[in-house]
Amino acid sequence: MARSQQLYLFLFVVFVFLQLASADRFTVGDRQGWNPNVNYTVWVEKHKPFHVGDWLVFYYQSGMADVVQVDEAGFNKCDASNPISNYSKGRNYAFQLNHTGRYYFICSRGYCYGGMRLAILAERLPPPSPPPSSHRNSAARCRLSSALLALAVSLLSAAALFHFHL
Predict the structure, then answer these.
(1) Among candidate residues 83, 69, 80, 87, the one with its CA nearest the CA of residue 113
(2) pTM
(3) Structural domain 22-123, CATH architecture
(4) φ, ψ (nearest 5 deg) of residue 132
(5) How far apart are CA 123 and CA 54, in angstroms?
(6) Nearest Cα to 112, choosing from 83, 81, 76, 84?
(7) Rounded CA gap, 97 and 108, in Å?
């Protein structure tokens, strides 16, 4: 593999690692899952803000529900005739919020009219907070230092694997 290809692969791995490290995973509907008679508006209020890179995981009963990503008009009318994406296999579906903006999901099996629909606003990840200035946060600093050390070891290991000289 050429050195430039190794560098691109290394940078890609670092980018993916940083994205995964900052992403949150949300189970849509919490314990109730993606089912009828769940107030998804309240669920969104409980968990927002959502950020680019976060994952929404829909758990549902196979054969009884599906997850259809639609535009705002489809969401408002419970109309799945022009889906952006549609998933009905298995019993769960994981969806990553990959850009800023609104996302709309409905169930096309008739349950949308009863509230089985979800609107999410994905925002940019906020910049990191400034370091704490008091000694009360020494445990948080220690965890951050450990995480940075683990990242540095990972990066050095990857560099060694790809024969980079840092």
Answers:
(1) 80
(2) 0.66
(3) Sandwich (2.60)
(4) -65, 150
(5) 10
(6) 76
(7) 21
